Amino acid sequence: MHAIVVGGGIGGLAAAAGLHRVGWTVTVLEKAPEFGDVGAGISLWPNALRSLDELGVDLGDRLATQTDGGFRDRRGRRITRFDGAEFARRHGRPLGAIHRRDLIAALRDAVPAGSLKTGAEVTEVREDGLVRVGSEELHADLVVAADGIHSRVRHTLFPDHPEPVYAGSTAFRGVAHLPGTGLSTSFDRGTEVGVLPLTGGDVYWWISAVAEPGAREADLEPAFENWHDPIPALLAATPPEAVLHHDLYYLDSPLPAYTRGRIALLGDAAHAMPPFLGQGGCQAIEDAVVLAHAVSTQDTVGAALESYDRTRRPRSQRVVRESVRMGRLGPQLRNPVATALRTAVLKGLPARATARVGAGITGWAPPRLPRPVPPRTQ
Known about the structure:
The chain has helices at 10-21, 46-55, 84-91, 100-109, 152-157, 220-223, 231-236, 268-271, 280-297, 301-329, 336-347, 351-354, 359-362, and strands at residues 2-6, 25-30, 41-44, 64-65, 69-73, 78-82, 96-99, 116-118, 122-125, 130-133, 136-139, 142-145, 165-177, 184-188, 191-197, 202-210, 244-250, 259-260, 263-265. The protein is an alpha/beta fold. The chain is globular, with a radius of gyration of 21 Å.
């Protein structure tokens, strides 16, 4: 059986790894000239780490396990503490972080090199499995559309479905080298600053701020010079040209299905969400392992896609709703009375309680995939 994956980001490569693991031939079509990702990090929650284990993806020493941290206000006063050891005990996996380029490299290593095609812009996808790349026609038993939030394949399948909507915030991201920096998330009215240590002394930081869509890129250093350490130092250590700035969009109107014909939508193409739970990439990895399980346990591609849609749509769309809600209660909250109340509630939470938050999402366990049979020794 042959699958074509449209898109070589986290979701597309995870899908390719899973399909290869269960015995399918896979072709990944990436329109960029090389496989890679933006210069930023990503948090990997226990649900994603379990899924990567099931996909056979080895992160090695590239994963940074998060230990103690917590929420702070802009002056650095602690609001509540995150107990990494208690979190790992309760969830069976730690909270991890990794540079996106390293995650892409690990996923790429789980797929045969001959399956990866760059500079391949897909111009047409049909429900019967035909994929057109320039003048070339390819045919597949299954097409996985992992072509992102503005998915052309999704638009082809659901031309009348509403496009992604603005989440109300703009985001800045970067990676700086500042050894010894710890995990933290800091709030002010309408603003969040996250700090996530990576390996080798690198630190991934992000800022989300309530703003009008299309606002001009701001000069960050003066705007955050009065925030607590290490935020000003991280911004100063990041070259301005390496700072990423994106308005945040998501699929507010849930899709009626993630599949049509022989096509499966996956990741942001199916359920783009704002980043306020850190679950966008994690949900794409979940999609990948569920899809691989479905095609390895169902008798037909049609039955497998029915199973995939039935399993993934309710859960991932719930995570979208929870991400939107978390944004409104957290980094997007601007009313001074409401923000004071939020701070008071968080201060009353013991560290053990914060380790339980989100367990309904991060506690998810993937289905088991068939294990490859090792070759016999002569």
